[in-house]
Here is the input.
Amino acid sequence: MSEQSHNNPVEVSWFSALCDDDYRYLGVHDAELKSSWQHCRDITLAADRNGFDNILLPSGYQLGIDSVAFAGGIAPLLKQIHLLVAVRCGELWVPQLARQMATLDQMLDGRLAINIISSDLPGETLASAPRYARTRENMLVLRDLLNGQAVDFVGEFYQLNLEPPSIRTQSGSCPLFYFGGLSEPARQVAAECSDVFLMWPDTLDKVEDILNDMRARADRFQRTLRFGYRVHVIVRETEGQAREAAARLVSHLDDSTGDAIRARSLDSQSVGVRAQGELRERADLDGFVEDNLWTGIGRARSGCGAAIVGNPDQVLNKLQQYMDLGIEAFILSGYPHQDECDLFAKYVLPRIPHAAMSA
Here is the structure.
């Protein structure tokens, strides 16, 4: 399928490995790729230089460096790219978070988006339903404060009566909320409170089922969602070279190491993570679950566990199939992140109609 078959611009984003998730060989730690200011800065600057629309700055309590602090440091160095800053909403008091996000938005000239993570408080484990109920309250209050509205809110987790902070976003309105999750409470919160619903890789029929379900849920709130897709990519000049790169990536990985890496994640028992495991179980002996969708990365990663693997035409065609289903935003990554960022920008990005996200 040619690049001319989809003319509506989409958002094409990259990923900066703030959470110690960068490798030459999965499962083998490399000091040069460890999460640090210098390494993550270089990935972000490469994505900016290569013309990506946005970059996700992930957040994990135990792993890597802090997303909000990193965003403040990198913002003055960027030329055009947006920052999608992940915030673990269980860890930050909402009025404080509103001030931080408004400040970042000003530093970025309005190029901020927020990835809401429904996290526990560090050291606490809350059941899924009340945790998402707390996330819902957090999102409702945060949106009002970032819209410059006074808050008089009485909920189960927040009781707040206060004026908005004097610091405002550049536009005066709340940046877009990106949010994902496959459990029943996660889907309900996303339908009511998010702007962009994010999903991890799956087969095309499963992706379509999720989109249809989320559209119906949003309709009940008289809302319209955008849809985003988080997936790794391995693109080379030929399909054979791409498959060789995929095989090389896991060539030093044994199952026990992979199991230990996945178990360290705080979300290792979530519905979405289980779905990634089921995806691997449906794959063939080479790890492919459908054309050009390879599940080998999930052997050593909790969360997004599959990659689009192929030559430039195949990778573009796969992205086009998702666009045809209604995906409007892609968050891509690869290993090592800076190298794969350059390769995708060389072979595929110029062929995708894409534009910087509106603030």
Q: What stands out?
A: The two ends are 31 Å apart (CA to CA). The longest strand covers residues 226-235.
